[in-house]
């Protein structure tokens, strides 16, 4: 077994080295344009993602994943532009969806500006922005999502591309979804992170609207306050993501798998929060407020007394005044999150996507791309990899990704690319997709790892290989 592991590592290093030599010989310096999920954005481009919707050029931090990628090859190294659109918009931009939807005045396109409209939707990755200067792009170089491709996403891509042009999807990093709060006790003192430890049951009851007041007796065990301090009878103001969000998908994946049936209803796994809780409350209560993007959500939490929210840990840590973050089941999203998160052949599948309908218990249901009505020439290559959501929904699951004792609310973030049409960006895109698994990159990244709320994944028994990933992209 040890010799087999050595052979795999040696082959990976050889494949990485060969690709690096080819890229080093290229003199095509360019900007790779993409965008998507806010959850790992601070890991991908650095601290500017906390305050800027589009981070590009020299604003990409040198210690971030994309910053390290830019500096690895002195000649021909790409720059990056990353627009924080959230999952739903990024999938539509990536697919090249040309139809209008509610609240939009323009179809999705990589060239559209990276700015929010009145509904909080972004319809482009800002490729034409001065400093990015990629007016040549007809499609994004990449997209990043925490909710993997579903059947509708795949059909959107197929219907806006030529026959046989497939999306590529591989997991890149893991992230912790924090339960943050803004609460003061009866003396007016801020309740702090060290004083709150929620159980899964309590999280389930809050987000199903069963517990609506902070002094509910069912929450009493969550607080460890100084003598003479208590929690006032104030309503729980829930802050949630109003846009289609991978952070929402990750929270709902956890809730659907651990909460079970509450008052004859279940949580639905979805990237739309109103769909997640629709079996319990519809519409959401007036004191539940939606925000577009994790950064906006974190800001809303900080500005709203007696509130609670789910937000990426990286963004919770990046606010000007760090948010208070609850432990969950006695584990912390900062101190008890950092890996290793190992992917083996039992943890993922190829050429399957999320079904638009969940299982009867609300958990995610997968389906083969070949079985989706309307799919033409389904892919046969091993280039669309999906980590089974149930295998990272809670720690310690047999064959799962999250070890026992790890913080339990976990996201798996993916990088999406185009199998064809990469043109002069091809070699740079190959390197980007394998960067999360290359020691030359990960050993130099400071924005992902212990203490950041983000973690790299490792490739275990019979997982995909670096050569396999890079081979999925052609001109």
How does this model look, in words?
The chain is of the alpha/beta class and 475 residues long. The chain has a domain at 2-175 and 342-351 and 412-470: D-Maltodextrin-Binding Protein, domain 2, CATH 3.40.190.10. Helices cover 24% and strands 17% of the residues. The chain contains 13 helices and 18 strands. The strands form 5 sheets. Strands 4, 5, 7, 8, 9, 10, 12, 17 and 18 form a 9-stranded mixed β-sheet that branches. The two termini are 38 Å apart. 52% of the residues are buried. Mean pLDDT is 91; it is low at 1-18 and 20-28.
Structural class computed from helices and strand pairing:
alpha/beta
Supply Rg. 22 Å
Number of helices: 13
- CATH hierarchy: architecture of the domain at 2-175 and 342-351 and 412-470: 3-Layer(aba) Sandwich
Bin the helical content: 10-25%
CATH superfamily of the domain at 2-175 and 342-351 and 412-470: Periplasmic binding protein-like II
* CATH-defined fold name of the domain at 2-175 and 342-351 and 412-470: D-Maltodextrin-Binding Protein, domain 2
Any idea what the shape is? globular
> Unreliable runs, pLDDT <50, ≥5 residues?
1-18, 20-28
- Number of strand segments: 18
Strand fraction: 15-25%
Question: Largest beta sheet, briefly?
Answer: 9 strands, mixed
What number is the mean pLDDT? 91
CATH class of the domain at 2-175 and 342-351 and 412-470: Alpha Beta
- Measured between the Cα atoms of the first and last residue, the distance is 38 Å
Family: Belongs to the PstS family.
Domain PBP: 117-335
Keywords: Signal
Organism: Dyella humi
């Amino acid at each position: 077994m040890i010799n087999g592991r050595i052979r795999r590592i040696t082959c990976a290093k050889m494949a990485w080295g060969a690709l690096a030599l080819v890229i080093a010989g290229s003199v095509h310096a360019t900007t790779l344009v993409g965008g998507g999920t806010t959850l790992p954005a601070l890991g991908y481009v650095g601290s500017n993602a906390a305050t800027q919707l589009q981070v590009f050029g020299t604003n990409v931090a040198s210690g971030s994943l994309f910053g390290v990628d830019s500096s690895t090859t002195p000649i021909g190294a790409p720059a990056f532009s990353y627009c924080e659109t959230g999952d739903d918009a990024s999938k539509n931009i990536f697919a090249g969806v040309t139809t209008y939807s509610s609240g939009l005045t323009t179809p999705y396109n990589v060239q559209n500006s990276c700015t929010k409209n009145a509904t909080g939707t972004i319809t482009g990755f800002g490729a034409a922005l001065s400093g990015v200067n990629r007016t040549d792009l007809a499609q994004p170089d990449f997209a990043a999502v925490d909710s993997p491709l579903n059947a509708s996403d795949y059909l959107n891509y197929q219907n806006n591309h030529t026959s046989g042009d497939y999306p590529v999807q591989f997991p890149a990093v893991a992230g912790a979804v924090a339960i943050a709060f803004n609460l003061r006790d009866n003396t007016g003192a801020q309740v702090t992170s060290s004083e709150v430890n929620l159980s899964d049951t309590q999280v389930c009851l809050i987000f199903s609207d069963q517990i609506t007041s902070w002094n509910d007796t069912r929450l009493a065990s969550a607080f460890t306050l100084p003598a003479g301090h208590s929690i006032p009878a104030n309503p729980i103001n829930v802050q949630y993501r109003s846009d289609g969000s991978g952070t929402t998908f990750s929270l709902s994946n956890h809730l659907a798998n651990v909460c079970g049936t509450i008052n004859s209803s279940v949580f639905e796994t979805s990237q739309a929060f109103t769909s997640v809780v629709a079996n319990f409350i519809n519409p959401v209560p007036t004191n539940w407020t939606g925000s577009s993007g994790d950064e906006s959500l974190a800001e809303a939490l900080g500005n709203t007394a007696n509130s609670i929210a789910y937000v990426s840990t990286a963004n919770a840590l990046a606010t000007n005044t760090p948010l208070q973050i609850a432990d969950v089941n006695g584990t912390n999203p900062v101190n008890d999150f950092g890996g290793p998160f190992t992917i083996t052949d039992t943890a993922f599948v190829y050429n399957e996507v999320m079904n638009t309908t969940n299982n009867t218990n609300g958990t995610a249901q997968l389906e083969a791309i070949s079985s989706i009505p309307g799919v033409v020439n389904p892919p046969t290559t091993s280039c669309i990899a999906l980590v089974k959501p149930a295998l990272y929904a809670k720690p310690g699951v047999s064959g799962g990704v999250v070890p026992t004792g790890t913080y339990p609310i976990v996201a798996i973030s993916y990088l999406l690319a185009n199998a064809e049409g990469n043109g002069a960006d091809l070699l740079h895109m190959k390197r980007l997709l394998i960067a999360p698994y290359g020691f030359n990159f990960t050993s130099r990244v400071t924005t992902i790892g212990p203490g950041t709320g983000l973690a790299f994944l490792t490739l275990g028994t019979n997982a995909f290989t670096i050569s396999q990933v890079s081979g999925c992209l052609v001109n």
